[in-house]
Design brief:
- The chain is an alpha+beta fold.
- It has a single domain, classed as Alpha-Beta Plaits, CATH 3.30.70.
- It has three helices and four strands.
- Strands 2-3-1-4 form a four-stranded antiparallel sheet.
- The protein is globular.
Length: 92
């Protein structure tokens, strides 16, 4: 399983240390950052099941960073109507 997190990590060396900690504490998991992405994405992959998302979020929080799970869900019609930003659907 793969879980994607939005973070506020901006420093490359700190991102490497966080990735190493995740791999150390959670055996069978790999982690990497994309600091070029606007969401400063942390990608965690598990070789054997679920990614402990809430534990990873708390780990980053203890280190002074924010993290939240990024979802790839499309907004509902109600969300589109109520949201301040206009959604422009992509035709599939």
């Amino acid at each position: 399983m793969i879980e994607i997190f939005k973070t506020n990590v901006t420093n490359h060396s700190i991102a490497i240390k966080i990735s190493e900690l995740i791999c150390l504490y959670f055996g069978g998991h790999s982690a990497s950052f994309d600091l070029e992405d606007c969401d400063k994405v942390l990608r965690v992959q598990s070789d054997h099941g679920l990614v402990p998302s809430q534990t990873i979020i708390r780990l980053l929080q203890r280190m002074g960073f924010c993290a939240e799970i990024l979802t790839d869900e499309k907004p509902s019609v109600v969300d589109m109507m109520l949201h301040e930003t206009k959604y422009y659907p992509v035709m599939e």
